[in-house]
């Protein structure tokens, strides 16, 4: 199979135009369209980033059309000291609405079976949109694909096994505080850290389509995905969760490393059924 082609276009949205990049496989598509949302803590990431472009190209090369979504980014938050937020037009609900508008446009423009997926903070946006679709804002995805997803504003306590994997690698309190600061920056106020409309790991997950998760092994944010998987079990949502041994957060942003290939092959395998 040859190289995929892609075009970039603007999608009309409720907060203005949303940029998307649509990837078309060389030859007849072999499965559903993936609407893909990159990560980056809501402060970094564009359609050109490897976690967006390289992932989309690899999935399209495997035979699946992809729509990659660019959402509005927030100013970087202070890493230490008082958490004073800089003004931004892209706090909740704007970036989530942009993903929703891109999804609805893909439904209108392409039709057929569609999956929704994302990495890290992009998984948070995608999961929140999936819950809104479940509640009637549009057609439900055929499946959900989340890689090293973050689904909470306050990082759940890590399991004993995760603590052992992280010994000597990361300081739990530092990571918890960075997640909290990023989440407040996204939500706009600390009072919203437990708002399930913003952080879907806190919501009722009943009725979601099948969920597939691939997590980094040595990653404290894995505690969020593990808690999310537990809540999927409680909600009787079909799901599977895997760990990529030896990896750290963000392995899809490093296409030159072997874990990138494992990750995109996992996505293609899920799409293929």
Automatic annotation (TrEMBL):
* Pfam families, per the entry: Abhydrolase_3
SUPFAM superfamilies per UniProt: alpha/beta-Hydrolases (SSF53474)
- Report the superkingdom from the record: Bacteria
Keyword set includes Secreted: no
Listed Gene3D superfamilies: alpha/beta hydrolase
Asked if the Swiss-Prot or TrEMBL record annotates the protein with the keyword Hydrolase, the reply is yes
What Gene Ontology molecular function terms does this protein carry?
hydrolase activity
The entry's keywords: Hydrolase
**Which segments constitute the Alpha/beta hydrolase fold-3 domain?**
34-252
PANTHER family from the entry?
AB HYDROLASE SUPERFAMILY PROTEIN C4A8.06C, ALPHA_BETA HYDROLASE FOLD-3 DOMAIN-CONTAINING PROTEIN-RELATED
* The protein's name: Esterase/lipase
């Amino acid at each position: 199979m040859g190289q995929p082609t892609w075009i970039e276009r603007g999608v009309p949205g409720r907060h203005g135009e949303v940029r998307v990049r649509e990837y078309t496989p060389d030859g007849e598509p072999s499965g559903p369209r993936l609407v893909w949302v990159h990560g980056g803590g809501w402060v970094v990431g564009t359609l050109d980033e490897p976690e967006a472009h390289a992932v989309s190209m690899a999935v399209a090369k495997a035979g699946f059309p992809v729509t990659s979504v660019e959402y509005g980014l927030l100013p970087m938050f202070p890493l230490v000291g008082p958490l004073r937020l800089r003004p931004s037009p892209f706090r909740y609900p704007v970036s989530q609405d942009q993903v929703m508008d891109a999804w609805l446009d893909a439904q209108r423009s392409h039709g057929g079976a569609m999956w929704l997926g994302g990495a890290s903070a992009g998984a948070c946006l995608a999961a929140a949109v999936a819950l809104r679709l479940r509640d009637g804002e549009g057609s439900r995805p055929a499946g959900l694909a989340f890689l090293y997803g973050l689904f909470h504003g306050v990082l759940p306590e890590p399991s004993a096994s995760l603590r052992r994997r992280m010994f000597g690698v990361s300081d739990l309190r530092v990571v918890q505080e960075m997640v909290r600061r990023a989440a407040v920056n996204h939500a706009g106020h600390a009072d919203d850290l437990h708002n399930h409309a913003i952080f879907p790991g806190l919501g009722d997950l009943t009725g979601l389509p099948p969920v597939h998760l691939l997590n980094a092994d040595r990653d404290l944010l894995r505690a969020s995905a593990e808690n999310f998987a537990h809540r999927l079990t409680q909600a009787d949502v079909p799901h599977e969760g895997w760990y990529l041994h030896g990896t750290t957060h963000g392995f899809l942003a490093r296409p030159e490393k072997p874990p990138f290939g494992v990750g995109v092959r996992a996505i293609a395998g899920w799409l293929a059924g």
